[in-house]
Amino acid sequence: MISFQIERIYLDEEAEKDWVTQRILQTLSSLRVERVRGKRDLIKRFLSFPDPLGRGKRNLFITHDYGRRLKPCPGTSNHICCGYFVINPMTNCPMDCSYCVLQEYLTNPFLTLYTNLDGLLHEIDLFLSTHEENFLRLGTGELSDSLALESIFPVSQTLIPFFAEKEKGILELKTKSSNVDSILHLNHRERTVVSWSLNPPRLIAEEERGTASLEARLEAARKCQTMGYPLGFHFDPIIYDMGWEREYQDTINSIFKFIDPKRVIWLSLGGFRYPPKLKGIVEERFPNTRIFLGELFPGKDFKFRYLKEIRVEIYRKMVGWLKEIDPSLFIYLCMESEEVWEKVFNWAPKNSHHLNQLFKNRLREFLNR
Q1: Residue 76: pLDDT band with limits 50, 70, 90
Q2: Looking at residue 15, what DSSP letter applies?
Q3: Cβ contacts of residue 119 below 8 Å, gap of 6+?
Q4: Share of the chain above pLDDT 90, in %
Q5: Cα–Cα distance measured from residue 276 to residue 297, given in angstroms and rounded to the nearest whole number
Q6: Cβ-based neighbours of 275, under 8 Å, separated by 6 or more
Q7: 151 and 182 Cβ atoms separated by less than 8 Å
Q8: Which of 60, 251, 266, 315 has a 20 to 30 Å separation from 237 between CA atoms?
């Protein structure tokens, strides 16, 4: 079932004959299709409308991407990163989270689907074949939600069997949806991790428009667990406000009413952070948002963050609650400094390469258990 509203399809003529395009058009056969050549004039037209970002989420642009769609995660300077690689088969997202950095980052407001998937598979295959190391982690959740559009754009249904045949690559699908039925019976060989971004129910209701409820996300995770998928959970961004401790502790307890902790391959923690230009965009589009009420200051990466002491307090408590569930859970910090790691865990990865190696050790242990 499609849980979002699409008003119109804009079809780049170059993509019209792709099998993916034909499937999308068949699924959305009741919608008007406007054929275009390129996107420049189309984007210019939409940027003249009020709230082009919101309007763009209701319009599909189907096209080709001839650039690189597999890149290293951009990470952030002066912080430890995990050696992740991002796959971009689409850009933008039908969901509308107040804190989403794509509002500031993307110049194209449309839900844009790149239907030349054969070229993407070739790019991934070449990448994996030219790297000697194993357990290369790749994911599609950087510029869009990995599963929100799966009912019309079957990219995950294409990637999961592809990665099942690969020995070096691990695919991660990050989502705030509950759209897992189409992937449950695929052959995945545990080479795909299905992950959920989580927040307490109040924050989901107030700040994450169009996303699945916490209960629906966890029920979807339970379904994936039953079918043998490794699971991941990401508390990112963690919002620090009145009552945060009770709400996040309750959320953690809710997870493990549904999920066996032994099926969780990793969990990440990351405090709310944002580039300076994002605040004005968010306040205009989400006038009732409360995400900026905390004390946020520019860090070494020029993003606004909670004070270091506050972040350490958050992470220590979150780690404590998680370790009470299962001391063996693999927990990492997203885009944090060595100093913060040290204060939270009493140890720290020496550098980004060291953290990447810890992920490989975790994958080896999990897959060989």
Answers
A1: confident
A2: G
A3: 66
A4: 86
A5: 10
A6: 101, 104, 302, 303, 304
A7: yes
A8: 60
Q: Which of 94, 61, 238, 249 has the alpha carbon at shortest distance from 176?
A: 94
Residue listed under structure tokens 């952070």: 273
β partners of residue 139: 86, 172
Q: Which two tokens stand for residue 194?
A: 């299905």
Q: Sort 202 into a burial class: Cβ within 10 Å, 0-12 / 13-18 / 19+.
A: middle
Two structure tokens written together for 327 = 């001391």
pTM of structure: 0.96
Question: Which residues sit opposite 70 in a β-bridge?
Answer: 87
**Token pair for 339:** 């100093």
Q: Which two tokens stand for residue 139?
A: 């994911």
Query: Number of helices and strands (H, E) in the chain?
Result: 13, 18
What span, in angstroms and rounded, lies between the C-alpha atoms of 287 and 318?
Answer: 30
CB-based contacts of 260, cutoff 8 Å, min separation 6: 225
Tokens of 267: 């969990």
Contact between residue 39 and residue 93 where contact means Cβ atoms under 8 Å apart: no
